[in-house]
Design brief:
Layout: H1 21-45, H2 47-58, H3 63-70, H4 77-129
Helix pairs in contact: 1-2, 1-3, 2-4, 3-4
Length: 130
């Protein structure tokens, strides 16, 4: 009887410098696009469009929406806060899904449990803002 042991494949993690000019320019471009879309949506559709943009942009990044709302504009403060909470909530959920997909069920369970606690806190905050 022959036993064959297969080596487990682990993804190679490549960490980049966040202050690299290319990375900074990509983030600046993303912020500019989100600011333009947010301004257009806010004037055309009101807060509903802003919330949709928050949910979609939250899948990838929360910083761009947060910075675009911090820059001010015609958006009401409460709407901006709700949009940021929506983006943060969607981003938290997407990170939990990534952890489960890439890290397996054990990591997914741990991140998922902490994400649920975080999402409940965000929901309480969201209700308090109403």
């Amino acid at each position: 009887m022959r036993i064959v042991v297969l080596a487990a494949e682990h993804p190679h993690l490549q960490i980049k410098n966040p202050f690299d000019l290319g990375t900074v320019l990509q983030l600046a471009g993303l912020i500019a696009v989100i600011m333009l879309v947010a301004k257009s949506l806010a004037s055309e559709t009101g807060s509903a469009g802003l919330y949709l943009l928050a949910a979609v942009s939250g899948i990838v990044d929360v910083d761009a929406l947060t910075l675009s709302k911090a820059a001010g504009g015609e958006v009401i403060l409460g709407d901006a806060a709700r949009a940021i909470l929506i983006a943060a909530g969607v981003n938290t959920a997407s990170k939990a899904v990534m952890a489960a997909t890439l890290g397996g069920s054990r990591l997914g369970s741990m991140v998922g449990a902490l994400s649920v606690v975080s999402l409940v806190a965000m929901a309480v905050t969201f209700v308090a803002l109403r």
